[in-house]
Specification:
Elements lengths: L2 E5 L5 H11 L1 H11 L1 H7 L3 H14 L4 E8 L2 E11 L4 E9 L8 H15 L4 E4 L8 H9 L16
Parallel strand pairs: 4-5
Antiparallel strand pairs: 1-2, 2-3, 3-4
Helix pairs in contact: 1-4, 2-3
């Protein structure tokens, strides 16, 4: 098994979009349960398209956004987008996901360790990541804590149908 992390290339886009959409399915399901199907459809009528749009946008931006790809035996199994705010010396992990066939194999941990080191090398003094507090986000929270992120900082989001 050959594992490597490399920079994003435009030919990677469809693979990482598929990974993103599949990885976010439990989050979409959880969100529907939390806010209700009717309100969810108003707030996020096409969550797969929205996720694809956000990831595509991150991949098409220039600095300070960076996109890294993890491969196992030349198969893309993980991606991560990072935004570096050089003026504040703070970096933010934005979109990231591990292929559902490679969950719980340490791929995400290796990727976080890699990007945290890149952040340090770029002169960043702190890193942030935001995730959900629901059960669907529990694996992400565990992964962030495993590499040293503190938190979570409490946050509450409310919804209402008008």
């Amino acid at each position: 098994m050959t594992f490597r992390i490399r920079s994003y290339q435009p030919a990677d886009l469809e693979s990482i979009l598929d990974i993103a959409v599949a990885a976010w399915q439990p989050i979409v399901t959880s969100s529907k349960e939390i806010v209700g199907e009717e309100l969810f459809e108003i707030i996020s009528p096409d969550p797969d398209a929205r996720k694809r749009e956000r990831v595509t946008g991150a991949c098409q931006e220039d600095e300070p956004r960076q996109v890294c790809i993890a491969e196992i035996d030349s198969e893309i199994v993980d991606f991560i987008t990072v935004h570096m705010y050089h003026d504040r010396k703070v970096a933010e992990i934005v979109n990231n996901a591990v292929s559902t066939t490679h969950h719980h194999k340490g791929v995400g941990t290796k990727m976080y360790e890699f990007v945290l080191e890149k952040m340090k090398q770029a002169g960043m003094e702190a890193a942030i990541v935001t995730t959900g507090g629901d059960e669907a986000h529990a694996p992400a929270r565990r992964a962030y804590e495993k590499v040293g992120f503190s938190g979570p900082a409490p946050s509450v989001e409310y919804h209402i149908k008008l």
